[in-house]
Amino acid sequence: MRPLLPLLTSLVAAPLTHAQPTLSFATHAPDNIGSYIRAEGSYVDPGPAGAGIVWDLSAAEPNGWQDTMLYLPAAQGMSPSLFPNAQHVLRLMRSMGNSDAYYEADDTGLRYRGTTDGNAWNMVMEDMMDELRFPCSYGTAWTDEAHGTSPPSWVDSLTITAEADGYGTLIAPSGTYTDVLRIHQVRRMTSRQDLGFITNTYRHAYHAYLFYAQAHRYPVMQVWTDTATIDGGAINIVRWSEWNMDNFSRIGEIRGAGERITLSPNPATERVVITGDLMTGSQVSLLDASGRVMMMTRTTQSGPFVLEVGGMERGAYVLRVTDPVAGCWGQRILLQ
Question: What is the mean pLDDT of the segment spanning 208-226?
Fold first, then answer.
């Protein structure tokens, strides 16, 4: 994978109470319509394990690298035929190109099926690896292993050991999250490249600390250490952190948004009517399947707003509204 200070004052004045979060299929499986901006930055100590912890990771410094992460149905991925049983795609969008990670999910967990860039590089898992178990709460632990191939010359073996080792409050560079569950994963990957005349062996050990907030389907922050060797040679260690710059989720995931904003009709042909508690100057955007903003405008008055879409290409989009009252909200919409 490379793929507030004000709060601290309040913590001194009055101790926080922490609920024990539980991750489930209903709350933390991909829903194929969410997207968010992920920033990368400096490594920070992920802090201790335990109950009722306050993790202050706000010292992570951004390095200027930002990625767009987009959830899609597997059928809209770049190479769905390689992963016939997958249901979900998490697309990583970067300036040098995109990649799709394919997953299956049910009420027992989230399982990794493989990754592709849609061109020359594919990693197809012969068996699945559990990245997340459902339900998952403080103390949940699991191990799993999987094998895959990356034609024409790579064979990969992966193991994962994971434990939900703490819960509490996270102070991230992007804000503060309460009722957070932390999962510590150790992922070990061995890749062998057979060139015919020589075989190279690459070994990676990833230590990842994933912080899940109750209201968000994806980790709101991650801290990684990658220890790598090639053919038993010198050890190379790379450390970094990742966090969400925004928290764009589907209707109902932002508190109160599902009651404040609706859109109709869906599917739409010429126009979409957005109704609810909108304010003048709210930003309205249409994003295509790659996460590109294809249309952006602002409301000119409070109340219902009509978005003209007759000139847009037909297909699936995400309509996103950023509003001072309702927060950041989005929903898939089909233009036909």
Answer: 93
Q: Using CA atoms, how far apart are residues 287 and 321, in angstroms rounded to an integer?
A: 11
User: What distances in angstroms separate CA 217 from CA 25, 58, 123, one per listed residue?
Assistant: 10, 21, 24
What's the whole-model pTM score?
A: 0.70
Residue 7 CA, distance from chain mean position: 26
User: Own/partner pairs for 310-317, CB < 8 Å, 24+ apart?
Assistant: 310/269, 310/270, 310/271, 312/286, 315/288, 315/289, 316/76, 316/289, 317/286, 317/287, 317/288, 317/289
Count CA within 13 A, CB hemisphere, residue 141: 6
d(CA 167, CA 184): 12
The one-letter code for the residue type at 334 is L
Which tens digit of pLDDT belongs to each residue from 72-102?
A: 899 989 999 999 999 999 988 776 778 999 9
Q: Which residue in 247, 249, 220, 225 sits closest to 236, CA to CA?
A: 225
**Domain parsing of the chain, residue ranges:** 5-247, 250-335
Which runs of consecutive H residues, i.e. helices, occur in the chain? 5-13, 25-28, 257-260
Q: Which pLDDT does position 233 carry in this prediction?
A: 81
CA-based nearest residue to 321, from 271, 265, 268, 246: 246
**250-335 domain in CATH 2.40.50.140?**
no
Kindly tell me if the per-residue pLDDT of 222 is higher than 90.
Answer: yes
